[in-house]
Amino acid sequence: MTTAPHPQNTDELLQALQENHRLPYGRTRTVTAEELVDAAERFAEPVPLIHALLELQEAYTYGSDPRKSPVVFARLLTLFDERPDVFDERLRHQLFWRFKWVANALRALPEIPLASLRQWLGEMRDRYGKEGLGLQPYYGQAYQLAVHVGEDTTLAYELWAARRRTPYSDCEACEICERALYRLAAGDDERALEAWEPVLAGKESCKEEPARSFSYALLPLLRTGRADRARELHLAGYRACRRNPSMAGEVGRHLEFCALTGNEARGLELLAENRNLFDEVESPLDQLDFLTGVEVLLSRVESLGHGGLPVSGYAGRAWTVDGLRAEVRGRGDALAARFDTRNGTSAHSGHRTARLDRAPLLDALELVLRSRGLDELAPGDGAAVAPVAPVAASASRTAAAVPEELPELIRRARELEEEGHPGARACWARLRTLVAAREYSHPEDPAVGPYGRLCADLLTDEAYRAAERGDYASAVDLHEEAAGLYEDAGAPDDVVLARACALLAAAEAAEASGGEGEEAEVKAAVLADAHAAVVRLQEEAVGLAPYIEGRLLRLRASALGVRLQTSGDPAHAAVAFAEADLLQEFAVRHGLTTQVSGAMLLRAGTYALSGDLPAAVAEVDALRGRLASDGPAWHLPRALGLRGRLQFGLQDASAAHADLAEGVRLAAAWPAEAVDTSRLHADLAQACLYLGRPDEALTQLTRSAEVDLRDGKRVDAFCTYSNAAQLCLDLGRIEDCIALLDSLLGEPDVTEGELDDRLVAQLRLLRARALHAGEDLKAATAEFVALAAESAGWDDDPGSHAMIAAETAMILGEAGEFDRAGEVAERALAAHALSPRYELVSNCLRELARLRAQRQGPDGLAAALAHLDEAGRVADAARAAGFQPSGRSLETALAYEYGRVHAYVGAYEDALAALEKALVLLGEPGPEDEAGAGEWAECVRLAGAVEGIYLERTAPALARIDAAVSRLRALGRLEECEPLVSLAGELREEG
């Protein structure tokens, strides 16, 4: 945008004003508007100055700066009085419309005397009367002043509401809101909601509506039992007002809604997202409205025992809930008192008290998919709410008790570790905290051993965690360091195990060069070498304890199992079975129940990798019987998870669902990382999708992501959340999708650039698509344009840039910005040349051609045909490369689009010729042609309309349509017949 404050002529000034007008309201737009007024004054021409002053007043009004808006309007009114001739009809309308803006601004300033407010309304009445504009707008302002003061509202309402609207009346949506609020103030929720319905249903809207009405309607909806509707309006309404200083009151009401529905944690998240409102809202009335909503939320959180939580507040210091509540209460009380003093009533203090005294309306209302409780929020830096540490989440689940005494705690941790019990993690976590303390003193107990051994134990636990999250390189380093400390501590068995673990982690971490097949072959060889090295370690060691022997055998069997999985070579199955059998025989002989179970799981997995799924199920069933009698109980969820996945392979989704649901139920008794709860939820989501239960699948996906998030697997969690957001979008749950993505994109590691930038871009792309699906074209366009600019720098991934740029070009075309759309399409083509995306780029070019022809008619034909010619070259290249599109051929789609484009511009002969070509390319549908039948029918319909309606060749058009109907009926495709039958009837009536 041109932001230079010194345009060289009035044309440049007007262009700069237009560009500034496209910006969102806020400081940037306001400052630029001020500079442009300064520039306009230098031209000594009244009209450019009028335009600049109008832009500045709008920036002040909607930027929540009421003190400056009347000053600017006074200059405009003086210009009108001095030179009424330079105000054309449009400028005159804007001037008199804005009398209401000034009245609103003056009401919002408690330092303005009440007499001055009434004097201004008198000025408005006189001016409107002199100009013959009708007095309904004046009485509307008089009513709003009566409501503000809290006196004579009934009479003022009747004087306004009974009058006929004029061209200067507030828009229908705003007046509906005022009528509804009148009913609401009288305590009649039902009549208020009835009055609101046109706005709540989206039939009436404006710049402020429906977001304003949504925020006021939330509590009445709850009180009348319409909680689901309230939830919908909260999601849609909050998005429309967040971070907007001129809608701070609306944000406050959404915070209040969260506080009164058991969503206090979400309220704190939204407060963090709107921290700018503490410092950017210049309107005292908006401040009062916002701060009262904030106080309702903070008081509720404090009453629940969480006054010490960090919370976002005024800049310059860190805040806790109780500290900010005290600050907000002082400021809110002071503002209410100032308004009441000015007005000579207690209306504002009374209204504020009524809001603060409201009791919760619902114990719990699930507002968003990613819902959290206050217990899941942890102290942070005061700028945002952070997730709880993984240890706390795990410790909340059933596990072995953690001893209080240090020697007993160390012994218990090692016993549980030998057993493979999940409770070991909680013990190690407690020990890690104790050891890190400055005052830690290691016990002098031979049964505990030296300090170095305990440090090695902690490193080993940390290494296991690193391997679980896929960080094998760190796991190698940690195991090697632990081995050294074990050696120093005189623990040779632990040295052997640590080094064996390091060998296997190193094999997992190995990266190979070359093609996909070569990489798998190399990785398999590395795993075979690791297996051999572990065998040598075990053979060279003397007198190993049975549990160490069992762990080494488990590592050996695991290495060969992973090799089989990596290579897919059936020849590798026999040795994998042999190692699993060796492990099982040893474990049975020494009573190592955990390793017996592990061996049977490995055998089941080997059967599955070998393609013998029934044998794998039989092995798991045998394991389930053994687990029921001998344990360990924490292996049962894993066994059920494996059985569920095997049932998928056997095409039995119902059985898979049953196993996985039971696995999830049993997993609740154990720490999530011990039983792979996240995968159980994810697999159960897949089963739900197979069974046609998408809403249940969505729940399972979000639970899977929540588990990963608590366990510190943030990338995995965000990927799963991304899948959940996509499912929301597919289900048409647009606001749920956007709310989920907004929550994720507001996470500290996202805003601070710590999360993988491509993953963040994927989330933003999903959000842009959701905004577009939700018909928020302006916001969607802005996000797409930003992503296209960012992805242009992805030199390692031009294909993704081609995809994003192609979508962006289509969105710009839809917004009517065809020049920018063409530029972005050129960038998509350039990236496509490096990494072909034939179908996406072809779709983009065809859509731009269609939009140009549809919006611009004959004037857009040349540009539309240029896009189609380019799409033709893309189709030629795709055919030469052997590319197979997912649907109809690119040539067929192109011929159809040529037909549509020519039809839009009135070139009907050319349109018909193109459509007939498309029909030839499509060919008549057959019995198995599900998608093709619909495309063919639509092409016949358009050809029939062009031929019969526009070219007035009714007979051949009817012959074409009737033949198609007969063909479709013979195929049983009755739904596709309906538009054709309707068109044929229309043609016969006209004929």
Describe the structure.
- The protein has 991 residues and is mostly helical.
- It contains 49 helices and 4 strands.
- The strands form 2 sheets. The protein has a two-stranded antiparallel sheet.
- It starts with 9 loop residues before the first helix and ends with a helix.
CA-to-CA gap between the ends? 56 Å
* Strands side by side in the biggest sheet: 1-2
Count of DSSP strands: 4
The value of Rg in angstroms is 35 Å
State the gist of this model:
The chain is mainly alpha-helical and 991 residues long. It contains 49 helices and four strands.
Based on the model shown, name its key terms:
mainly alpha, two-stranded antiparallel ribbon, globular
What topology does this entry show?
Elements: H1 10-21, H2 27-41, H3 46-62, H4 69-82, H5 89-97, H6 99-107, H7 114-131, H8 136-149, H9 153-161, H10 172-185, H11 189-200, H12 211-223, H13 227-241, H14 248-259, H15 264-273, H16 277-280, H17 284-303, E1 310-311, E2 319-320, H18 321-343, H19 347-356, E3 377-378, E4 386-387, H20 390-395, H21 406-419, H22 424-436, H23 451-468, H24 472-489, H25 492-509, H26 516-540, H27 546-567, H28 573-590, H29 593-609, H30 613-630, H31 636-649, H32 653-667, H33 672-675, H34 677-690, H35 694-710, H36 714-730, H37 734-745, H38 748-751, H39 757-773, H40 777-791, H41 798-814, H42 818-834, H43 838-856, H44 861-880, H45 890-904, H46 908-922, H47 930-950, H48 954-970, H49 974-990
Antiparallel strand pairs: 1-2, 3-4
